[in-house]
């Protein structure tokens, strides 16, 4: 019988291969099916099994070959719906690998096959999925939701568990993209419940897991993203030799570990992701992995290595912003940082993407004494946060608002807003972000002459930064601590203290402007405020004051 032979041990290799697939031992199934195929061509059923085993073990080219052969075999047998399904999975997996033209051709073939045959079958729902995804990518959420609803109706009519889950996934994504986050996330949860019960095939289940986690991350639903990431991790462990989804799982785990303050673990997981996604090459998720590694390196002060990773992520097709702009700010290249963020914001339309950029935009603008821009960015961020209703994003907004108020000379109101941010990060168990808020609060307390409170906030932040080896943040904590006595005596702002230090070195206004990356006019304003607060009338007197208070 074609495709079946007896092994030396007398066992039926194909039966063993099928049994291995049932046990989710995909590496064993692939090896046995390949051996059987070498002895004689597999029939269509076993070619589909071979394609699945090959894809799940990371052998994308072998999977494509098996699906193509299976498609042609099914066409010859007149089983056009199944032939269309083979073409669909082949086309979709090619698109996911970045081979859009080749994949699009197979997707079109699947659709044409069903249209020509005019058959009423569940595969009509599968071939509608690409149109829904295309509408979603273009921002046409109404059309996307309509298409995915149509897919869902077909899936329910035929009782196809894979298509039911994929239809719910698409509807959830469309609702989230349209701003109806609560209903959208609920639909995504429904898709996940179907997956976790084991009714969905591994191919569809992996796609749903990754898409739902990304959607939760994009709407800043940290707890839900963490819960589903743990579930994905367990699911991956239940499949032997599974490859395609482990890389993204490692990236998401790294992001959550970073938020929770396990930076060493986060770095370990994302390096594993980089290694995993590099073989075979071409996985677009690799850019996300390099970006995540760059973020960890930047926060630890390893700027040269961080820059290399940001640029690698960009080469692969993943935007290096806002991380690279924040790196430029840390490198005292504030103008470059501001220009990069402005350029990216002009091109970004999706609220999720803009929210990441706006938070960095506000931080960079304040570093350049551009309060107007920082205030505008914060207001836009508030509007997005109101849409998503996310505790994470609310804490981000409160940090930005408090920072603007502090820069505007309103430390009392800044403290009130920053306390809300502090509570938010505490509830999210995010120690690094909590430490950043504590430093802002310390600065506000210093302006209010509440020096004991300021010292407590700085000390608490330092403990966190020391544990995380967050060198740049630790340096900022030390600087804020050293300025406490200056605020107590003169009531100067941090920028005024920087100007005073530079004046004491003999720098001119032009040199000060170049050093701090601000305008000559801004330097003059800081000089005037500083002289008024300290009761000084000359640069010589300012220099003497700086030496007297150990600022030089």
Automatic annotation (TrEMBL):
One of its GO terms (biological process) is regulation of DNA-templated transcription. GO terms for molecular function: DNA binding. Residues 485-550 form the HTH luxR-type domain. Signal peptide: none annotated. The keyword Disulfide bond does not apply. It comes from the Bacteria. Keywords: DNA-binding, Transcription, Transcription regulation. InterPro entries: Sig_transdc_resp-reg_C-effctor, TPR-like_helical_dom_sf, Tscrpt_reg_LuxR_C, WH-like_DNA-bd_sf. The keyword Cell cycle does not apply. It holds the Pfam family GerE. PANTHER family: DNA-BINDING TRANSCRIPTIONAL ACTIVATOR DEVR_DOSR. This is Regulatory LuxR family protein. It comes from Haloactinopolyspora alba. The lineage of its organism: Bacteria, Bacillati, Actinomycetota, Actinomycetes, Jiangellales.
């Amino acid at each position: 019988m074609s495709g079946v032979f007896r092994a030396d041990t007398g066992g039926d290799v194909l039966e063993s291969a099928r049994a291995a697939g049932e046990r989710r031992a995909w590496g064993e199934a692939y090896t046995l099916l390949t051996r059987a195929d070498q002895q004689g061509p597999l029939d269509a059923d076993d070619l589909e099994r071979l394609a699945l085993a090959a894809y799940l073990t990371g052998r994308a080219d072998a999977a494509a070959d098996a699906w193509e052969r299976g498609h042609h075999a099914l066409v010859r047998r007149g089983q056009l719906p199944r032939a269309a399904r083979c073409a669909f999975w082949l086309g979709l997996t090619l698109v996911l690998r970045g081979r859009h033209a080749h994949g699009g051709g197979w997707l079109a073939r699947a659709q044409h096959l069903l249209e020509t045959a005019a058959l009423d079958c569940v595969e009509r729902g599968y071939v509608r999925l690409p149109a829904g995804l295309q509408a979603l990518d273009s921002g046409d959420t109404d059309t996307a939701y309509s298409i995915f609803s149509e897919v869902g109706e077909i899936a329910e009519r035929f009782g196809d568990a894979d298509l039911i889950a994929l239809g719910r996934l698409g509807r959830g994504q469309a609702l989230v993209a349209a701003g109806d986050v609560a209903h959208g996330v609920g639909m995504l949860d429904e898709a996940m419940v179907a997956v976790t019960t084991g009714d969905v095939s591994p191919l569809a289940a992996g796609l749903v897991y990754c898409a739902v986690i990304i959607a939760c991350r994009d709407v800043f639903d940290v707890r839900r993203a963490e819960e589903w990431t743990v579930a994905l991790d367990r699911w991956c462990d239940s499949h032997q030799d599974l490859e395609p989804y482990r890389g993204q799982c490692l990236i998401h785990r790294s992001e959550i570990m970073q938020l929770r303050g396990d930076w060493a673990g986060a770095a370990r997981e994302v390096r594993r992701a980089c290694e995993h996604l590099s073989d075979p090459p071409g996985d677009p998720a690799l850019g996300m992995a390099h970006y995540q590694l760059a973020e960890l390196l930047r926060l630890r002060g390893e700027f040269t290595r961080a820059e290399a990773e940001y640029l690698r992520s960009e080469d692969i097709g993943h935007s290096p912003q806002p991380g690279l702009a924040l790196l430029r700010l840390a490198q005292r290249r504030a103008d470059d940082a501001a220009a990069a963020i402005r350029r990216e914001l002009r091109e970004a339309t999706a609220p999720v993407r803009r929210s990441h950029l706006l938070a960095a935009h506000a931080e960079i603008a304040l570093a350049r004494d551009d309060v107007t821009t920082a205030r505008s960015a914060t207001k836009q961020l508030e509007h997005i946060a109101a849409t998503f209703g996310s505790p994470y994003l609310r804490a981000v907004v409160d940090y930005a608002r408090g920072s603007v108020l502090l820069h505007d000379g309103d430390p009392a109101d800044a403290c009130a807003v920053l306390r809300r941010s502090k509570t938010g990060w505490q509830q999210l168990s995010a120690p690094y972000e909590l430490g950043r808020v504590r430093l802002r609060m310390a600065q506000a307390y210093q302006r209010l002459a509440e020096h004991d409170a300021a010292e407590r906030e700085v000390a608490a932040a330092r403990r966190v930064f020391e544990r995380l080896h967050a060198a740049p943040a630790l340096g900022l904590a030390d600087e804020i601590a050293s300025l406490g006595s200056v605020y107590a005596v003169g009531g100067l702002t941090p920028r005024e203290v920087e100007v005073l230090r530079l004046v004491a070195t003999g720098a001119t206004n032009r040199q000060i402007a170049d050093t701090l990356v601000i305008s000559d006019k801004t330097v003059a304003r800081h000089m005037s405020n500083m002289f008024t607060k300290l009761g000084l009338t000359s640069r010589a007197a300012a220099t003497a004051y700086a030496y007297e208070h150990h600022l030089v």
